[in-house]
## 1
Amino acid sequence: MQLEVGRETGINDLQRERESATFSSEDFAIWWAGGKAALEERRELERYFIDDPEFEDAVHPTFLSYKERYEHALAKGIKFLVKLRQWQHTRHGDADNVNLKFLYELRMLMSGSLGTALFQQSFPLRLHFSMFLSTLLNQATEEQQKRWLKRAWNLDGIVGTYAQTELGHGSYIRGLETRADYDAESEEFVLNTPRLTAYKWWPGGLGHTANMVVVLAQLYIRGKHHGLQPFLVRIRDERTHEPMPGIDVGDIGAKMGANGVNNGFLGFRNVRIPRDQMLMRHAQVQADGTFVKAAQPLLLYGTMVFVRVMIVRDVMFGLLQAATIATRYSAVRRQSPIEPNLAEPQILDHVTQQEKVLPQVARGVCYRLAADVLWTFYQRVMDQLAHKDPEAAGGRELAELHALSCCLKSVCTLDAAEGIDVLRKSCGGHGYLSSANFDSIQGLASAAVTYEGEYTVLLLQTSRFLLRSYVDGLKRKLLPASVCYLRNNAPLSWGSNLLENAARALEISTTEQVRAAWQFKEDQRKRGNHSEQQATNLAGRRLAAAASLHGHAYLARNSIRALQGLGGLKPELAKPLQQLIELFVLDTFQRQLGAVLKWNSISKHQLQLVEQRFEQLLQELRPNAVAIVDGFDFHDRVLGSTLGCHDGRVYERLMEHARGNPLNQESVNRSYQTHLRPLLLGKL
């Protein structure tokens, strides 16, 4: 039965929104992509896959079992990789010269628009191209790279993953229990899982996909402990894919999201590997068992830094996916008249809805600005290390990079996961449907809060850097750029520039919180007669709060700096971008208001000025809201949502999806005869 949706359709609503915008979404898309050529190449690549019927899902993934999802994701993933290599070969020739920049771009492609369009809950081969290959690049010697890297890149008998986290230990990696004992007589390492809690747990692709892993294990030589080291281990036979002798491996089961990843468990029982399968770019074990310590031990964790840099961009992408869905739906959905005698307005006309949606759009844009800066910083430090630059080799910039990547990973993932949930709830009951796709987006974002470093642990790691920097500032030493404000003891001087007021208030709050945490820790250590470790634990809440404030202060200041880079844009495009940045900074200020008021003297009138400007920005951005999210240039397949499609056919798509439900393919389900009918005849 065909019914009219109503006089005002979503198509007409979105069309009017686009026609009334003050700038071109195409101009926004060009800026967002980094230029017209980059935009066209991305669109061409997306069409290359999306227009291919082999990549269409005959059955919506939400209707598949967990096992079927894995098998479907793997089959589709292999087709994807084969077709992608054909594309790369046609346009760029053979790409055997693998480097971190190339892996970063490939990883962003897999977790960005194209990868999301094809795999809403990811796929099992992604870690091979991010953590496994990047570890070989960062940790393997030139000789080891010659042996393994090209084969791994070409998937020539090697599908890899990275096994660090264990059943009993995650972010506290010094607590990892997997052992690698060196046997000097045979020149082999013997790997063992000494107890249940030592099983590797969570690595993507480990369950049934990978046949080799980089394993982080505690190294022992003649009973002496030499810390965590990376080892390359074959876990499945290259020909049969059966687990190798001594290997216990499998899938850990369904999760809240990312159910195409094939996360696994792994145990070892007297598994022997040759000496040259310890990755020895930094630390080495010589044939006789002599251990050569790494010049810069922190380099062992280079893979984690690389991944955390990427995660900031990952959650930005998910947040903007959700924001695009919510914005378009809010322009289609009509409800609750503002004036009793007028028609129901688009819910985006309600200020309360604008407050839910638009700050998340602004947050996504500003996370992108920070992610770009963080990636540039990472490249610079890695280049310095490669050339043995004393500034990086001495650890100064590496320590700052580690702290900043920990801090931004923690702050951005937590706030993005919260923002996605706000956006889901802004879509009312329909946002709860799987077909709206918030479950997939939320699942990936929520996982990012705790994988590759649990957020509180990372904040505490950041706080150690902040305390050292604060003490260095007291000694009048030169501070790293990201924390140079710690030396500024001047109180807040409220001026006419609200953005500067907000950013400075956040920096002062961070400085004071760091100072208070440092003082509390010192008091506990000296007067409370506690050890350094006990004092740190007692100060934990204060330290984590300081690191969180630092992250928000950095994001605000970085966004303000980005305003200077908008001068070359068309004025009609620069204006909404300026408004988004301003909205983000003021929203960040208001969200941290408890800490801000604790450490700054700000009047009621001054706070009202911030609130008034915040609400004014909502009103100014409202006419361009749809045009802004159109500028992210998400294909409908990328959004994967009945609520967020470009054409606005929300209600038609909801009904089409419901009618495609396998449960509705029969008018009477068989359970009626087996269960319901006997119950009804029995008459309770």
## 2
Amino acid sequence: MAASFVTLFQWRLNSMLLHENEILLGVKDQIKSLISQLDEAGSFTGDVGMILGRESGHGSWASELRGILRQAEDFVDDFVIRAYGQTEKDRKDSIAEFGKELQNFNSRISEILNRRPPVEAPLMLEEIQRFVRSNIPSSEDKETDLVTCMLNYINLPYDLKLSLLFCCAFLRRHYQSIDGLVRGLVAAGLVQEKPGELMEDKAQENIDKLISLGMIEELEFIRDHFRVPSPYCELSLGVMKAEDFFMSTANSDIMVPPTARHVSIYYADNTIPNTNSFLHSLFFFSEMDFSKACSDCLRNVLHNSKLLRVLDLKNTLFESLPDEVGKLVHLRYLGVRESYITKLPESISNLRNLQTLYISGPGVGFELSNGVLNLAQLRHLKMSAPAIDGEVTVPQGISRLGNLQTLESIYAGSGIAKELGVMTQLRSLKVSCVSNDHADELYFSVMKLSMLRKLSLTVERGRERGSYKYENSFFPRLESFSPPPLLQTLKLVGRLIEMPLWLGSMENLTKLYMCYSHLSENPTTILQFLPNLKYLRMDKAYKGRRMDKEFFRVGGFPKLEYLYICSRNLVEWTEIEEGALPCLKQLSIYDCRELMLLPEGLQHLTTLQILDMWGVHEDLIRRLSPSGGPENYKIKHIPLVKYRGHMIPSVPGRWAPQ
């Protein structure tokens, strides 16, 4: 992986020139000279030979190059930490020393490059087979697939190789959102930064390429989440084992090797291992609640791992974070998911490079202090509280964060709604507890956000005792709203008096979530003409008892691929016109307890791959059964049918072709 190390170090140096200009004025020439030297080194693709374990002079020089690049990068990161804690005089001395050491690294790299072999020998099939057998446990019939995948991996550009390995380390057996992967890749420094370009767009482009190649795939049952399919998962783990650069393990007692830079520990017990001091990424997914002792373990990890750029802790249920987190000068991603944290330490304001802050848990609310306003590089602020009416109170002045692209689960009262109107760089906005006192100002501000791609609005929940969630909570004056033109995803949670007419004009909309709308009218009358809608979730959106062919007509929903219907009121769904829903791939029917028949015409949906029925009447399941069910003809063409009755003792099941 020597060539990939070259690429990563080049990206790191270029990023420093963009962001650390203040302290690098005296050493710019040395940095640019080193970048030029690395350009020459990068022309030799030595990582394949290293992975395959070739016994040659090439292996020796490539190993040396990788070692010196590790030293150089660690030296650069340590210099940044020291420089920002020094007086002006001490900093001048450090910069002078830094420049001399850069020249030293440049000379050593040049000497190593002079010893490289002129031409790398062609890859031999036997070498790849030997690598597969040594590093990836598999049966003989699976070996051929693994060898083919290895060849595909070898032919990938460096950035896609790094993205694939990071996917596997980031995920392993935990599902992850694609948006989360994008943020992780950017924060870990695995995406090249270029002036005038958003790194998130480049990371998304890399992910899309890997999806098109079949190396990662979106989950069929959780939208916008992904996994690394077999055998690419096994292959990635084998490459990680050979390199010790990425590491993924279920053993929290394991010793982390000094070469590891990105470590993922999943299904961990009640401890965090001692990590090496050069670690860049730590993903920790606990299987159980953490004790105070483990909280102390985290304090030790933070003290020892000063170069961390990504720290993602899941299911730890921490009540607070130690102050030591504020000393992680290089930290770009901080995630504490499924925790009891309700506020952050004041030291969080020291994280001058932080790009993503993601806090979630069962708490009812979360209040951000003014310290967050010091996080000038913050791009994604994701805060979620799953409890009813969970909200995040952000400080006034939040609009000062000019790099912010994502702002989620915030309460827009107390003047925040007005501030949103100047945050025109926002791409994703999620607002909770929308109420009469700030709704008009909120709508007016959102209409100004010309870059917005995702919008979620949740109405303030009614307080009546015994009331069903959002049953008496209406969106105030939503008809006065007009969505930004580039909006692709819209989620509305709360009652609607009627369907907003502006919904029918959203030509760029691809995903629509309508939850607890409780409409008496047919919502698809307007929605069926949306030209790019691919995902439609109607969760208690329609309170009628009958759906007929008017809901899904020929010519409507030309690109719809996923349809979700949830309604305890629905009793009859009579018909789907033949030729309707020409692209539908998945139909999910949830909690429709009174529905006894699926519509006539379902058998004509030849593109349908998955039928999900969850919480439906047992009589419906019996009618559809392949074992003599009279309605089975409607679904027998569907490759996968999953079901579960609404009665508590019911057991989940599935029908698939034999």
## 3
Amino acid sequence: MSDSIEAATSSLSSPRESVFIHPRREPFDHGLLPIPKLIFTDPNATLAPVRDKLVASAANRPSKRVGPTALSDALQISLDHARLVLDTLASVLHDDDDPLVRAKSSEVDVVGADVYDLILFLYIQSYKRLLPRTHKDSAAVADVWPSTSAFDGYLSALSPLQLVRSNSRRFIPSQADEEAHQLSYLQKHLANILSLLAEPVEGEGEESLVLTMERFEHLGFLIQFGEKGFEGVTLSQAAPFFANSDPDMPAVPVPAAQVHDWVLQNISSALEHISERVSAKENGPPNATDQDVPMADACASSMKSPKSARGSSFIEGISKSSYVKQAPDIKGSSVKVLNCHDSVIYILAPLRFATIYGCSDTTIVLGAVGKAVRVEHCERVHVIAAAKRICIANCRECVFFLGVNQQPLSVGDNHKLQAVAPYNTFYSQLEEHMNQVGIEPTVNKWDELIALGVVDPHDSLSHPAGVSDIQAESATRLDPDQFTNFLIPNWFGGESAGTTKDNPFPLPDAYMASQLRNNKNLGEIKQILREAPLEDNRKRELSCALHVFFKDWLYASGNIRQLYCLQGD
């Protein structure tokens, strides 16, 4: 067996030495739900009977899949929570051709989920996120961020502005730290996970478990080969025991112990590689840039957002600036906006995932996000997003203008969420991007927010220890009289031609009436000014006064920076 493992490792490493096993980050970043009945102290013992119930239920359906009713019965959770589980699973599945991924919002109940994908999804609900490293000099930065911050000493010790000044993120878990943490979790739980996927050999009892190639492929929900995960190397192609299987003949099942040893060896090699990479970085020059998330420059026209090895773009440390990225500028399928302060950020591109973390006093416009958006540890941020789904975690005084096909999710300790409101902007390629990623403009559940518990069992930063779990604070609907359209500047003139001329999401009647009323009032004011019975010199004085007040507003609101950045472009 050891010979076959060594042969497999060498066959993968010889043509391309950089091909290692990686955890799929999407289930860990976007797939964890703080529902107490999904957190199992002994996942293997609990999920084995659940699996058997779901398999029996699926056997009665032509599709051999399970819907929310069967899931609700098996886990003793509400039907709404069961639907939430299926919606969340669909957003993080590894196979884009899976019927659940391709189903429209109204079809999820009928289509259902594969039992074994569902079991793996439920298993990792026991995962706990990696804690940030303690700042070496918390007292030195205490004056930058309010001591009464909602984030209990973490963000109070490290504000977005302080991060820009420090030019260091050694106290924040890097992408390598998080990946090693996820691999270590899988390493620890691999035997249990394989036992849930495996089946006993007929007549030989539970001790002789085997995996078919089909069951083995379900591990692709958690792990993948290749730095980007989309290099065409499936798990069965990488594994020596399935690599040369005849596609016209069913592959012979493999002992679960053999699979266990092979995956463990690959995880160990990957962890060793990560350790060497991190060690080399920490022992490098003191001012070396962290290649995971490089700091951005101070002006939008000169800033660069490098692509990571995993196909994600990072935008970090933008302060008092305007910043724009369009589709040609985004090289990966996901974007992370980290620790930005007092800025306006436009990401006008089709994406799979987007994360907004640790930002304050910033407006962020996301294009079309086909899988999931997560907004976490933000203060006084306005988010405008067209997305399949969004999760709001541990935020304070934020406003969300949403076009979303699934119910927004509020988790953790959200303080004084000011409001949610309908989507309020557009750019010329928006509808094209929405079509690319599968967002339906006719379905907008912006005001159907689901609030889960204040205590997030996956994240000890969400609330001080010892506080009993209560329902998270929900957001109010924005008053229609305060609703306005957000105008995206035409940054590049005719270079980004598209067909979208208006907001693709229909507005609710109250917001449409308010918009029409505001437009009418504006028209009347313009007409009054044009027809005012004033002499030419008085008209010039009036025009100058209006320009002065407008200029004062530009400076007071900070919007003058956008004009400077436009001039720079």
## 4
Amino acid sequence: MDYSSICFHDGNITNLINTRTLNTHHDFNHAVQMHSSLVRRLSLEQELEGHRGCVNAIAWNSEGSMLISGSDDTRVNIWSYSSRKLIHSIETGHSANIFCTKFIPETSDELVVSGAADAEVRLFNLSRIRRNGVEEGGISPSAVFQCHTRRVKKLAVEVGNPNVVWSASEDGTVRQHDFRDGASCPPAGSSHQECRNILLDLRCGAKKSLEDPPKHCLALKSCDISATRPHLLLVGGSDTFARLYDRRMLPPLSSSQNKSPPPPCVNYFCPMHLSDLGRSSLHLTHVTFSPNGEEILLSYSGEHVYLMDINLVSGNSMRYTSADVTKLTSFSPILDRAEVHSSLYGASLNGFSVRNKAARLDKCRKLVQIAEKSLKGETDYYYGIEACNEVLDGHGHGHEIGPSLMHECLCIRASLLLKRRWKNDSHITIRDCHKALQINPSSTRALICMAEALAVLEKHKEALDFALASQSLSPSDFEIMERVDNIKKSVAAAEADKAIMKSDRGSKTNYRAGKVLSLSDIIYHTEGDNDASIDDPEREDSDYDDELELDFETSIATEGGDDDDSNVLPRNLNLRFHQRRDSTMEIDRPNGSFGMSFENDKPEMAIDMKQRYIGHCNTGTDIKQASFVGQRGEYVASGSDDGRWFIWEKKTGRLLKMLHGDDAVVNCIQCHPYDCLVATSGIDSTIKIWTPNSPVPSIVAGGASGPETSNVLDAMEGNQRRLCRTREAILPFEILEHFQMHEFAEGSFHPFECAQS
């Protein structure tokens, strides 16, 4: 039995078609739209040409008859789905890259809106465009909203509401623009110049960890409104936590002059292993609701894509506190096995026939055998992990397979993850070992795997505790003894290095004071090369107890004398660093200063991940999307920095398809609302249309248009290396996102240049 021969969970499409007349209650269109047999036949049908820059945003109208796109060329284009032709091209008047654009619902698709790097939101009425072909000239916007102070990264609309659009900006606010209140912002110099349209103020909302009180500006990157429960608002930005708000419970709309602590959210969402990173450049680039509104997707820069449950009564969700993060890696007595079995296997097995249960168990045993062969080196570790995912995630989360087989599968997957060591595999190993120890507290296999994973993460004391526990349970097991000895040696070596670092700290400080640092050393807080391994832990902050805050000044030489263009990049950049006190949040304003303290504003809980999707790379752009595919959201898709885009089975995380969609980076992926068609865009100036026209189903593109199947793992491993080469940055996003620097000799550098948006 080969793993690739395992069918996907949507069954056989032929059987689905044959039984559609028998099952009148079954929604055939939803089931067949993005069936796995069609997804695996996706290939490039056509490229839509009409932009002259990177295409940063694409979206379908509600009926799927038109596609809207926004680009670095500051144009918004409208495309026909049926003819694949350009209908309208709008010169928007934006002075910088367009990052988001939408059709306004319930307006017969006549109203469209755009948001851009010039901090403006612009509304256009397509009925003003001449109907005889493509309109090349510009039309005046129906409304211009200039109340944001930084780039507008995402727009959201509410199904059935033609009067309001919401915009999320890197200034830390979500603003509500109601077309009925006025066509535009008040003119400059008027007595009521400040707009009172801030729905959500997170200018003091960013957090370094779950228990850390919010202090700094949360530069918002993405927002979404639930299609099924439109009062729910999801936002993500420059920290690791997505936040869910109930718009009915938010304070009244306010202006930017009134700064207050961030309002309480309904829930925080963050994978547990990312919730306590301290100072980190890790941040969200996209958040979105599932079609049924019960799940959300989070896409991280420098990390993976994660699925989470909103419905907290579901057994798939998991609430945790900062104390739970510590408990997961601490050696302590496990709960009574009867209690554990009750919690893990509370779901009834009734409802399945004896024959079906026997067939499922037989399938799971064969998958475990595949995983065991992978562990022995007969196949790549990736396929063994995928087989375990199928058993653990594809069959009732263990309810159908029993505790013995579940324990075995958890231990095998933990061992495989330790060997593969892609980014954060060690954290997933710890999760699996913890679950295995709940089933069998005396499992030496789970204990030693836990110890080795903790050692990789440099949690040496905890690693030694688990290692000694495994040795005490199997004192005569030679393999266990050898592995414990290796852990003891690594712990001793780490302690020795720590002692040397402590003794040399004084001389190291003097060395730093006398060394001429390059700008790269300053930006990334590094001295020399320090390449990360595939699964290295986050750098400890013990050597850098005093964090740095950046003040920056720009000096722009313009030919126009008094003309000051905020979009011109600075030619001279003066950096000044000073220590930051974190006890309270000091906020300087042009008209004065005041302090705010949020010491008591600590979230009690967050919701952990349900599934993760790996293989892509998200580091080069901060507009990279992760999307649900299909009307039922059965699949998950994401773009990648290697020019490919990936589709996974949502339930198991199994990779279905990998396609080459751009010469540089794929950022946007939008599935058609009803047909089996996907539109993608990225750094290229074209939009790609993908349909199931390949004659043969494959994990890659059919024929010569994509890589061979054997190269799939090479591509995924290459992306993992890219993820782990990302260095920790300490400069704010406003610097790192706008510029990139080219170094030459030590201590010298080339002036900043624009980076990809």
